[in-house]
Request: fold
Amino acid sequence: MYENIVKALNKNNIECKIAKTKEDALEIVKSMLFKGAVVSNGGSISAVETGVFELLKNGDYNYLDRSKSGITKEEQSEVYKKTSGADFYFCSANALTENGELINVDGNSNRISAIAFGPEKVIMIVGKNKIVKDVDEGLLRVKKIAAPKNCERLNIDNPCRKLGHCISLEKSENPAMTDGCDCERRICRNYLISAKQMQKDRICVILVDENLGY
Reply:
């Protein structure tokens, strides 16, 4: 079912493992980790839904926790810096194209920074709902689904949360990549398209045959 996407990812030097269920995805993650590994993550509902975050916190790993209770902005910044040297970094993707490209858009950009460079292994848990035809469709997915949902999750008061889609879609059916609000709390600030990778299999996509995250 996903053979063409697997081939496209592999052609881009991105590893891909298929999981039928979120439970299978968790077992794949367990098989990849080793005790004492330095691990961290970006914000990811997909990782929450698969149980990966609970796994990272179970004491078997050196977990760099960006969201621990009471953490200050300064301490969080230090976690982001230390994450660059992690053995494993977990996140999802905003979209996965049929050409094997991974699309991610960030506000703070600690996540896309770690995807692009730093951690030894980046593991992306991606549900089938995030598959799109091409980059343009992926960017529209961000504007229509991912950004509004994340603003709601993070309790960010900006236009896309109120409208349920990016404000740029009020003006055009096909807005430019960076079109959107001028809100101070805009979360679509930096864009990363991961295509052909220099380091083979550093990024591993666990593609789950279920809808996960947004």
